[in-house]
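User: New here, any thoughts?
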Amino acid sequence: MIFSPAPWFRILFLAFAAIIAVGIYSTASEGMDGSFAVPFIITAFCIAAALYEESWTFDRENKNVEYKHGLIFLNRKISMPFNEIENLELNIFLRGNRSDGEIDTDKSFSNPFSKENTVETKNWLKVVHPKYHQELILNLVSGKQRTIESIDSRNIEGIKKKAAILSDFSSIKLVKK
């Protein structure tokens, strides 16, 4: 099972690079003067973004997880066996505040449908407010954590499904905070 960005990510950045390159070529061929430094830098950035790779591969047969990130031809791989993994964790947090996971609605936001500071208000905040994020974390036996994915509250159901599928696939325990 592989977690990686969608292919449209690469296609989009290559399209941007091609459009800018065509613009540079047409401007230069018409003999127009001007500095091409900024368009070249933007084109180079788009090509580098298209070549960037970040993926998590869960291999059930070899009981191994591999994390790969960097450019396609120049990347770093981290490999760890399943027995070094304590659990998968789904964690919700307020962007900019990751101290203890507790949400103080007096300092943040409140439910517009309720003026009370209740459990329902806190749950509403966790699910609906865009400043809340959910992340899927790989907790290692050594105490280290590796974030597999982090998303805002609008896509929470998707990450919950991914976490459940991944937990079933790899037989790694799923913990929700």
